[in-house]
Design a protein that fits this description.
Layout lengths: L1 E6 L4 E8 L3 E9 L1 H5 L6 H23 L8 E7 L3 H18 L3 E5 H7 L5 E2 L15 E6 L4 E8 L2 E7 L5 H11 L6 H9 L23 H14 L11 H4 L2 H30 L3 E5 L6 H10 L16 H13 L19
Parallel strand pairs: 1-4, 3-6, 4-5, 7-10
Antiparallel strand pairs: 1-2, 2-3, 7-8, 8-9
Helix pairs in contact: 2-3, 4-11, 5-6, 5-7, 5-9, 6-9, 7-9, 9-10
This protein binds 5'-O-[(R)-(carboxyoxy)(hydroxy)phosphoryl]adenosine and zinc ion (ZN).
Length: 353
């Protein structure tokens, strides 16, 4: 079963080819991130226009990289949601058209589930990929930590899962991005906060952890506001100081200590609930997906606090990519899930688990 995966939910135009839900044959990503950097965040119209230009070349590169022709492809999988409407439309329209023109079955994939399925890739002959030795086993606790989602999900089997809890406001990646803005670090925020944190003391400041009604729910907006108040205090001003004034008033050492303290608490918030869920549900594997899965502090805390080791996918497969979509698409195809009608498949920007 060889599946072409197409992903265009945000600012990455991505395509990949995966065999049997475990073997990565190619993985191509074209990002419009540089175009958004001057605005400090993703501009949906620019992202959509970039997808139009990139989508067919990226798909062709994915086929060539895999050494495949269209004859070798058994199915196409595409991200249906969640994501930006204009961005999703381009990937879905490309996939629909190709499915009709090349006579391939089409599978609609949930982007958030896809992040978890990146961890099912265990084999590749591509250079520079470090993949887990074996596929996760069920019951599997999925920890989704991305720019749009923070969720704990218990999978009993493929396509049989329960959402245990999720953020009630900001996602953890969004909190990283907002903290980056507060202390004046460039876009993309998450990776730059984690780099700055390396120079700082994670114990420099104590910041609050939200107490939630739902045992497995999260909240990150209070933490973000606490960082804003802390930054204002550190400059010697009161809370009326506009946040735009902070980057030039904060010293580099203060920024580093704020970044490190925020990152410690944000990661602890996730890890606390992962431990709770492990105690209650005794999963056979714990799997992390989404952009923040690349965060080394999160990985360090999990290694220190979990009673068993967990494996991670390659850093290049934590952020948005086509390989995760192709992998989940393989399982859709193998489990005979209903095939989307290429003539009617619609995007679903708010698709939930
Ligand atoms: O999964 P992803 O690429 O896109 C979504 O589906 O949202 O996640 C992007 C998020 C952004 O908020 C980004 O700042 C964050 O992941 N991120 C990180 C790191 N790398 C990316 N956050 C913390 N540490 C990182 N190393
Ligand atoms: Zn994502």
């Amino acid at each position: 079963m060889i599946v072409l995966g197409i992903e265009s939910s945000c600012d990455e135009t991505a395509a990949a080819v995966v065999k049997d839900g475990k073997q990565l044959l190619s993985n191509m990503v074209s990002s419009s991130m540089d175009l958004h950097a001057q605005y400090g965040g993703v501009i949906p119209e620019i992202a959509a226009r970039s997808h139009i230009e990139a989508v067919l070349p990226v798909i062709q590169q994915a086929l060539t990289g895999a050494g495949c022709t269209w004859n070798d492809i058994d199915a196409i999988a595409v991200t249906q949601g969640a994501g930006l409407l204009g961005s999703l439309l381009i990937g879905v329209l490309a996939a629909r058209t190709l499915a009709i023109a090349k006579r391939k079955p089409l599978y609609a994939v949930n982007h958030v589930e896809g992040h978890i399925y990146a961890n099912f890739l265990t084999e590749t002959s591509l250079p520079n990929y470090v993949l887990p030795d074996m596929q996760p086993v069920f019951p599997m606790l999925g920890v989704i930590v991305s720019g749009g989602h923070s969720q704990l999900v218990l999978w009993r089997d493929h396509f049989d899962y329960t959402l245990l809890g999720q953020t009630q406001d900001d996602a953890i990646g969004e909190a990283f991005d907002k903290v980056a803005k507060i202390i004046g670090l460039p876009y993309p925020g998450g990776i730059n906060v984690s780099k700055k944190a390396l120079e700082g003391d994670p114990q420099a400041f104590s910041l609050p952890k939200a107490r939630m009604e739902g045992k497995y729910d999260f909240s990150f907006s209070g933490l973000k506001t606490a960082v804003l108040r802390l930054a204002q205090e550190q400059t010697g001003n009161d809370y009326s100081l506009p946040s735009t004034a902070l980057p030039s008033l904060l010293k580099e050492a203060q920024k580093a200590n704020i970044a490190a303290s925020f990152q410690r608490i944000a990661c602890e918030t996730i890890v606390d609930k992962v431990l709770l869920a492990c105690a209650e549900f005794s999963p056979k594997s714990v799997v992390i997906g989404g952009g923040v899965a690349a965060n080394t502090e999160l990985r360090r805390q999990l290694a220190n606090r979990l009673p068993f080791p967990i494996s991670y996918t390659d850093m290049k497969l934590c952020g948005d990519n086509g390989a995760m979509i192709a992998t989940l698409g393989c399982f859709h195809a193998l489990h005979n899930r209903p095939v989307a009608d290429p003539y009617t498949l619609e995007v679903s920007p708010n698709l939930s688990m």
